[in-house]
Amino acid sequence: MIDFTFNMILFKLFLFLSLKGFSNVNFGVLADPNGTIRVQLWRAQGDLNQEVISEFEDRAHITDEIWMRDNRTIDFMIFDAEAERMASLLDKNNVSRKILIEDVREKVDDALVHTFPTRRNGNMVRTSRGSMDWTKYPTLDHIYAYLETINKKYSHCNLITLGKTLNNKPIYVLKISTMNPTNKAILIDSGIHGCEWTSVVSTLYFIDSIVHSFYKQPSYIKDRDWHIIPVLNPDGYEYSLHNDRLWKKNRRKVSEFCYGVDLNRNFEYNWAKQDSTRSICSETFCGRAPFSEAETQAFKRLTDGPRFHGYLSIHSAGTKVLFPMGVTRSDHADQIVMTKAMAEAMRSLQNYQYISGDIHALRKIGYGMAIDWMYFTKKITHSYILETRGQNGLDVLGPKEILPAAKEIHLGITKFAELFNS
Ligand SMILES: [Zn+2]
Predict the structure, then answer these.
(1) Which of 297, 298, 290, 296 is nearest to 268 (CA)?
(2) N or C: which end of the chain has fewer CB within 10 A?
(3) Could you give the CA distance from residue 100 to residue 102 in angstroms, rounded to a whole number?
(4) Residue 156 in contact with residue 225, Cβ under 8 Å?
(5) DSSP-derived 3-state class of residue 88
(6) Strand, helix or coil at 90?
(7) CA 238 from chain center: how many Å?
(8) Where is the Peptidase M14 domain (predicted)?
């Protein structure tokens, strides 16, 4: 069961620190100046029976970045206060454990000092509006200025507002197309989770790499209609950037103390079928109804229009290429071939070990997810999740790693475009 009392203590501490203006950026429950609430990253290995699996399913209140590496290995984050109970549970079940990161907060903080768009001394990063700096994460304003600039500059770009968030931020889709009516349409989104900064930068990098010389691109790029939503959760992205590095959800106030709907649990297919997603304060709260949120409504409006032939959802940071639960479907073989080819292309840059396969074999089961809705409801066979590189599932990269991570996603998307007609 979720330890609600402990969660509330952490939440109040977070609130206290926020009100005190503890720092420009804090890390939610990780923002503890004395280091008394330490979070570690553990790896458990062994016979993951139902008792152990259930424990992890209940841990969604901390993060859903719990990674099943294979049938015998799980990586997960844990608070100091929970460590003893978890250790005895694992010992009892003969599951071995080791600490991968001693202090996650320190690790995140360290990366942030170098990659945050506003330098700690208050000077803004000097990147001109309309161009990108691939060594830092851009603010939402910077991203939108960039999109507006290329929209003005190129006739093959069309920037469309799909909707507005609760904080009145536009949700943009950028269409890049030669407007040839025989083109097949591909939809890409990123930033559905606020804290997944690298997913956003990777999508922007893909845009930047094709947009300036679009007519000179190979036909598998040029003869497509690209519909790209770089930031599907603008409120969550901004909040993660300026207030809480680990913030995932949008910013809807759902109760007196709790904020946010996990947009990637708010889609109609299998909506609310998982217990933890129905708890309003959970990290994976599915909302009060399917498509209750402005962001998912915007997405739905777009996909209810002209048919898409391919869908790529960019996340960070699991170092994976995934397809939906397709084991009983005839297109399973195609999906294996496609995800393998994408993972291989992504590995080719720096031999980073991207793995590929069925979402349910590699990651805990999700419900109400965009990918399942696109695959099962919209019948788009080629629907995939691309997870950027990271550190043990955490989106913490140094300044020199942002560009390679983005290039890997670019290689994956390009390989997809090359193969998906065949
Ligand atoms: Zn995600």
Answers:
(1) 290
(2) N
(3) 7
(4) no
(5) helix
(6) helix
(7) 14
(8) 136-420
Length of the chain: 422
Residue 208's alpha-carbon distances to 108, 197, 211, in angstroms, are 27, 17, 5
CA–centroid distance, residue 65 to ligand 1 (Å): 8
Q: What is the pLDDT of residues 155-211, one digit of tens each?
A: 999 999 999 999 999 999 999 999 999 999 999 999 999 999 999 999 999 999 999
Confirm whether pTM is higher than 0.90: no
pLDDT of residue 329: 60
Range 24-40 average pLDDT: 51
Give distance in angstroms: CA of 218 to centre of ligand 1: 30
Rounded distance from Cα 316 to ligand 1 centre (Å)? 6
Two tokens, residue 234: 């603008």
Catalytic residue among 295, 387, 401, 408: 387
| All domains of the chain in start order, with CATH | 4-115 (3.30.70.340), 140-419 (3.40.630.10)
Active site residue 84: no
Separation of CA 4 and ligand 1 centre (Å): 24
Amino acid of residue 39: V
